[in-house]
């Protein structure tokens, strides 16, 4: 199909995610992508674009990694799908044991059994991984003697997904407001990334825990980086403090590692940077490397045990594709590639370059504030306009002309590329971001 024909069908019939459709139909000349390879996307006319955000944060091993493709096709030839309700298959079983073996705390023999992440519950995407964590938490307390524990503490700016449950624990006002009446009540505290430091946010977590000692079901966080809030980064000290405080009143810590999990920050899990073991850990995005929608919620032995006994105590939850063999086979291969290609080592080597580049941009170009970086995430702000601010989109256009796909978050311009991006492509990406910002800064 020709480019114009695709765009015509698209504008006639597709309703795009996170897109103001009237402006899109009237004024957007969309990229029309037909192929991808490693860190690059190619459009129907053969133009090449560096994928600066790993196609919405999932493609951490680049596009069409040959080993992932092989795992997918081999599994497809054998068993593409079967339900996981009381029957099983090798990819789901083996992946669960691999995830549990690498989970935070797995290497700490002194941890009590109840605090270990010993069980993997599969679902389809990041939102459902969080939804599972919410329901597990609520049901655990309901049937284990503390039915008043129904409220979650959540951080300002938090993004945990799109279901009503995950939106309820979210903290981005624009995404919440319209659904206000449908959302359940949570306790909002400031983000530890805000001015005033993590101590201010923590003081409010403490206050909420003290005020409602037997009503808090759990504290949910995006550890170290609040992605959708604009790559807001905060100290591991906050996580350690929250872990201690939640233990002190015997409530749960839920780590939403849908964005940070599997090496984004340089550590396998962002909670590892704090040496913290959560009670529930949500993983998606990188887990299946951009090949399949796939997610997992890791649960502690204590939480799992709280669902044993009479059949009425079971977790009656599941999706058609829970633990589907294609996703599970790909995820196993993702973990194997991380080991064999030393992806964490690669991040450690490349991260200083990302950090230095964003610091240099902020130091040398006008109007740029708050350069920040951790692992393979680098970000800088163009003033403080929030999610709907427009200067980020001018950078998007400038980057596009230079062969970069660089979707901003409001006024935050960031990169979150494939973790195995070759050095030359990373140099090209950082130079392209800098040139694009320079063009927009000139006005
Ligand atoms: C993207 C994201 C989600 C939602 O994941 P989906 O797969 O888009 O549903 C949840 N939490 C965090 C931290 C995310 O970055």
TrEMBL record:
<feature type="binding site">
    <location>
        <position position="285"/>
    </location>
    <ligand>
        <name>substrate</name>
    </ligand>
</feature>
<feature type="site" description="Participates in the substrate recognition with KAPA and in a stacking interaction with the adenine ring of SAM">
    <location>
        <position position="18"/>
    </location>
</feature>
<dbReference type="InterPro" id="IPR015424">
    <property type="entry name" value="PyrdxlP-dep_Trfase"/>
</dbReference>
<protein>
    <recommendedName>
        <fullName>Adenosylmethionine-8-amino-7-oxononanoate aminotransferase</fullName>
        <ecNumber>2.6.1.62</ecNumber>
    </recommendedName>
</protein>
<comment type="similarity">
    <text>Belongs to the class-III pyridoxal-phosphate-dependent aminotransferase family. BioA subfamily.</text>
</comment>
<dbReference type="GO" id="GO:0009102">
    <property type="term" value="P:biotin biosynthetic process"/>
</dbReference>
<dbReference type="Pfam" id="PF00202">
    <property type="entry name" value="Aminotran_3"/>
</dbReference>
<dbReference type="GO" id="GO:0005737">
    <property type="term" value="C:cytoplasm"/>
</dbReference>
<feature type="binding site">
    <location>
        <begin position="126"/>
        <end position="127"/>
    </location>
    <ligand>
        <name>pyridoxal 5'-phosphate</name>
    </ligand>
</feature>
<comment type="subunit">
    <text>Homodimer.</text>
</comment>
<comment type="pathway">
    <text>Cofactor biosynthesis; biotin biosynthesis; 7,8-diaminononanoate from 8-amino-7-oxononanoate (SAM route): step 1/1.</text>
</comment>
<dbReference type="InterPro" id="IPR005815">
    <property type="entry name" value="BioA"/>
</dbReference>
<keyword id="KW-0032">Aminotransferase</keyword>
<dbReference type="InterPro" id="IPR015422">
    <property type="entry name" value="PyrdxlP-dep_Trfase_small"/>
</dbReference>
<feature type="binding site">
    <location>
        <begin position="319"/>
        <end position="320"/>
    </location>
    <ligand>
        <name>pyridoxal 5'-phosphate</name>
    </ligand>
</feature>
<feature type="binding site">
    <location>
        <position position="256"/>
    </location>
    <ligand>
        <name>pyridoxal 5'-phosphate</name>
    </ligand>
</feature>
<feature type="binding site">
    <location>
        <position position="318"/>
    </location>
    <ligand>
        <name>substrate</name>
    </ligand>
</feature>
<dbReference type="InterPro" id="IPR015421">
    <property type="entry name" value="PyrdxlP-dep_Trfase_major"/>
</dbReference>
<feature type="binding site">
    <location>
        <position position="407"/>
    </location>
    <ligand>
        <name>substrate</name>
    </ligand>
</feature>
<feature type="binding site">
    <location>
        <position position="56"/>
    </location>
    <ligand>
        <name>substrate</name>
    </ligand>
</feature>
<keyword id="KW-0808">Transferase</keyword>
<dbReference type="InterPro" id="IPR049704">
    <property type="entry name" value="Aminotrans_3_PPA_site"/>
</dbReference>
<keyword id="KW-0093">Biotin biosynthesis</keyword>
<feature type="modified residue" description="N6-(pyridoxal phosphate)lysine">
    <location>
        <position position="285"/>
    </location>
</feature>
<keyword id="KW-0663">Pyridoxal phosphate</keyword>
<dbReference type="GO" id="GO:0030170">
    <property type="term" value="F:pyridoxal phosphate binding"/>
</dbReference>
<comment type="function">
    <text>Catalyzes the transfer of the alpha-amino group from S-adenosyl-L-methionine (SAM) to 7-keto-8-aminopelargonic acid (KAPA) to form 7,8-diaminopelargonic acid (DAPA). It is the only aminotransferase known to utilize SAM as an amino donor.</text>
</comment>
<dbReference type="GO" id="GO:0004015">
    <property type="term" value="F:adenosylmethionine-8-amino-7-oxononanoate transaminase activity"/>
</dbReference>
<dbReference type="InterPro" id="IPR005814">
    <property type="entry name" value="Aminotrans_3"/>
</dbReference>
<keyword id="KW-0963">Cytoplasm</keyword>
<keyword id="KW-0949">S-adenosyl-L-methionine</keyword>
């Amino acid at each position: 199909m020709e480019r114009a024909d695709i765009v015509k069908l698209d504008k006639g019939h597709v309703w795009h995610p996170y897109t103001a459709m009237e402006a899109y139909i009237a004024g957007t000349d969309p990229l029309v992508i037909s192929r991808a390879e490693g860190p690059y996307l190619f459009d129907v006319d053969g133009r090449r674009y560096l994928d600066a955000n790993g196609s919405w944060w999932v493609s951490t091993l680049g596009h069409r990694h040959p080993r992932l493709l092989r795992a997918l096709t081999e599994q497809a030839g054998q068993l593409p799908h079967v339900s996981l309700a009381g029957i099983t298959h090798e990819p789901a079983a083996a992946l669960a044991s691999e995830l549990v073996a690498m989970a935070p705390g797995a290497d700490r023999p002194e941890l009590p059994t109840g605090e270990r992440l010993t069980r993997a519950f599969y679902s389809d995407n990041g939102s459902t991984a969080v939804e599972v964590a919410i329901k597990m938490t609520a049901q655990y307390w309901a049937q284990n003697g503390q039915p008043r524990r129904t409220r979650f503490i959540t951080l300002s700016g938090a993004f945990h997904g799109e279901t009503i449950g995950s939106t309820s624990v979210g903290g981005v006002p624009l995404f919440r407001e319209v659904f206000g009446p449908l959302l359940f009540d949570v306790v909002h505290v400031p983000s530890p990334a805000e001015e005033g430091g993590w101590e201010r946010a923590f003081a409010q977590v403490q206050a909420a825990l003290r005020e409602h000692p037997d009503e808090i079901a759990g504290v949910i966080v995006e550890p170290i980086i609040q992605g959708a809030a604009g790559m807001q980064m905060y100290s591991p000290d906050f996580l350690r403090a929250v872990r201690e405080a939640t233990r002190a009143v015997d409530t749960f810590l839920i780590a939403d590692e849908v964005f940070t999990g599997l090496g984004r920050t340089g550590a396998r899990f962002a909670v590892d940077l704090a040496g913290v073991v959560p009670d529930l850990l949500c993983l998606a995005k990188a887990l299946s490397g951009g090949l399949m929608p796939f997610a997992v919620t890791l649960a502690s032995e204590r939480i799992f045990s709280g669902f044993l006994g009479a059949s009425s105590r079971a977790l009656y939850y599941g999706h058609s594709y829970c633990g589907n063999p294609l996703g599970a086979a790909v995820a196993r291969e993702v973990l194997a590639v991380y080991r064999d290609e030393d992806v964490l080592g690669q991040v450690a080597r490349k991260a200083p370059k990302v950090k230095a580049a964003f610091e240099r941009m902020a130091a040398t170009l006008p109007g740029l504030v708050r350069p920040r970086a951790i692992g393979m995430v680098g970000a800088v702000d163009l003033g403080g306009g929030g999610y709907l601010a427009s200067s980020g989109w001018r950078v998007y256009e400038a980057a596009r002309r230079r062969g970069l796909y660089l979707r901003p978050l409001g006024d935050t311009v960031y990169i979150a590329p494939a973790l195995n991006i070759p050095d030359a492509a990373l140099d090209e990406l950082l130079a392209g971001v800098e040139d694009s910002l320079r063009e927009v800064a000139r006005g």
